[in-house]
Amino acid sequence: MAIISDIQEEQSSPETKPSQAAAASSSSSKAATFTAKLDRSNPLGLVEKVLEFLAQESDFFKKETAEREVASIARALREKERKKEEEERKKKRRQAEEERKKKAEAEKKSSEEPKAEVKKEETVEEGKKEEESGLRFPNKGNGLDLEKYSWTQSLQEVNVVIPVPTGTKSRFVVCEIKKNHLKFGLKGQPPIIDGELFQAIKPDDCYWSIEDQSAVSILLTKHNQMEWWKSLVKGDPEIDTQKVEPEPSKLSDLDSETRQTVEKMMFDQRQKQMGLPTSEEMQKQEILKKFMSEHPEMDFSRAKIQ
Length: 306
Hints:
Helices cover 44% and strands 14% of the residues. By secondary structure, the chain is of the alpha+beta class.
């Protein structure tokens, strides 16, 4: 609650000389005081009393700029308070960020050992699955790295790389590319590759070249460009084509129809890996559901999707 004190003035006695009275009058104007108590539930009450006091005891509000000056003081105080609040928020954000970093470091440290153990178990599990199925995990090029050569593939092509002695010339190379057969070796030595290809190719669109005088690269163009090869030649170790991961950028090079087919194949592979129905199976399920809803009188309890 705001309380305004009485204005304290020195009363000049009858014996006071005129000069003393003038000094006293001047002194009394300087001695005018204002005291108040703040009611926090109504802070504007105090502001109003202060302004009333100024109006009564001074000519401040007779100035044309009085209102602007008061508003300017209010803005300055608000800006000061805003900066103070902003500093407080920044301080809290810094503290929260430090706490988050400490927590993340602690969690990372505590989870490193279990993760390493889980990864080791997963690797062992994958190895067991490969042994059981007889299929190998593909290399980064979706092919396989073998002892004497390696091969990679896209849906359109197969690339074979065979290391050869440094300085090997093309005249020493024996390479026969046929529709269903590939033979490669060096003159005077047993062939490195000699077998029936996993699928047919287009011989006219195939070629080989010597790379850096230390390896021979053979490019084979697939005849069927909708399927992944499990091996280069029949009888070689096979890869698990469900683990193939084609580069997304390659899909953009395909025409719309081929791209849709490839995306469907990739979707079906992921669904099979997760034990979920393929796109064709999902379509059959939808057809069955629609038929069941149209014929509620029929018993579908033994119905199976083939």
